[in-house]
Amino acid sequence: MRTFPCLVGVLALLFLAGIGQAETLRYAVFPAPPYMMGAETEKADDRSASGIDVDIVREMARRMGLDLALVHCSWLRCLSLMENGEADLLSSAYKKPDREKYMDYLARPYLDSLPIAFYVKKGSGVRITDYADIYRLDSVGVLRGASYFAQFDQDTRVRKYEVASQDQLFPMLVSGRIQAMAGYVPTENYRLKAEGFAGQVERSAYVHDEKAEVYMAVSRKSPLAARLAEFNRVNEALFREGFIARVIREYYDRYSY
Fold first, then answer.
1. Which residues fall within 8 angstroms of residue 13, CB to CB, at 6 or more apart?
2. CB atoms within 10 A of CB 134
3. Residue 98 CB contacts under 8 Å (≥ 6 apart), including other chains
4. What 3-state class would DSSP assign to 111?
5. What is the rounded distance in angstroms from the CA atom of residue 197 to the CA atom of residue 119?
6. DSSP class of residue 21?
């Protein structure tokens, strides 16, 4: 009979400890500088990860009283984790009907433009001055499962070569394995400047730049899905205070090319 009060006491302590424990925000990240940096592998140090998206999400988690855990994945794997509820939040996402089946997008996009260009090896003689020029190419490298812009995404006449990670494309281009690659200009600006490809790769004269809204989204199977309204309130506050604009400007200026 003496063990019963002890058991009750232990259970009470465990219950009280659980009350004070913060929920964890599992944030799906993939290599995409300057939006997500230090997200290359599962062995990456989450504390040193940075970038536009990471800085915004880290502040969002702080204001919501959430512990932040980065879930490292390829782009397609990140989508799968969101669909299954194994990750709570995804960023750098275009709004697409198939994704809206398993993700709730925050009401306000944090980016409204993401220019797309094509990149070729310097000295190769390949010139892309308008969209039609890409039809002449034998191979255009793209990230598997990524969205660039509607015309290009849906164009079956373009001979595309898919890879699992965007950081594979510049090395493939330099080695001559592909003739050109499609890239998000801010991301490729970073790689040209920070990874030493500036002397080996050049950007096409043709750049596709139109309104392109980029969002953060919460998995519908996430335990945090019930806090969607709170995510939206914090997101709006970060806009209103100029936090998001400041973060974007700082990273774009740092890696301009």
1. none
2. 22
3. none
4. strand
5. 11
6. P
